[in-house]
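I'll show an entry:

:::
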Amino acid sequence: MSGFGSQCAEMVRAARDGDYRVGLVLGSGLGTLADEVEDAARISYTHLPDFPVSSVSSHSSEVVAGRLAGQDVVVLSGRAHFYENGNAAVMRTPIEMLKELGCEIFLATNAAGSLRAEVTPGSPMLISDHINFSGVNPLIGEESDARFLDMSQAYDPGLRERLMRVAATNDMELAEGVYAWFSGPSFETPAEIRMARTLGADAVGMSTVPEVILARYLGMRVAAISTITNLAAGMQESLSHAETKEMGLVGVGRLKTLVRGLLADLDNPAFK
């Protein structure tokens, strides 16, 4: 680990100490969940060493540490993306900070385009696996054999099972599928979407995969949820970031239900 993650963790603990078990990162249009964190300490990314500040309009770029659904959590309200600076490891310091704070679970959220007509805008999709179309990896440059990371169960089966049960308990449809990471920032072409569908993708987006790789590298259990904000290229007339932000807000209620349900059940003896 770099020293920056430890420094950032010390700054968070100085603002609010806690028994942190879960770290969350919030994607486009999903930042309102951070507003519901209680007893919260808020620190701007600009005040933390080596923390990336997103240039995306819908990302607030602050760490929120507090209580949510009875658990101490650390929320990364906003992320930096590979397309902003060409660095696949841009989120390394924030994720190292979560690990230093004691987080055992990393929960990523994002906005994504659906490749399945029945998984419509506003719907959540639980990520079961991913395809990295970017050709880059945040572990490039690591010198130890730990860089040869086993990704066969990147998305923790126990966490996925729990989230599916939370959805069922709340009479919520929760699709499950494969997320394909394209580098962005331009949206995919219809031909690229046809290719991705042929190769087994169910949704596409411009984030999350590097963070998942880093979290698994650090030994954290990972779950990830996409909020579907549009149908992919060739499946609707046009695509825009404005639609991504708008539909992210539409789907955030379901996301909150899933996240709160997972957190509330962490102390259940049956939890795995």
User: Anything to note?
Assistant: The radius of gyration is 17 Å. The mean pLDDT is 91. The helical segments are 3-15, 82-85, 92-100, 157-169, 190-198, 209-217, 241-264. Residues 265 and 271 are 7 Å apart (CA to CA).
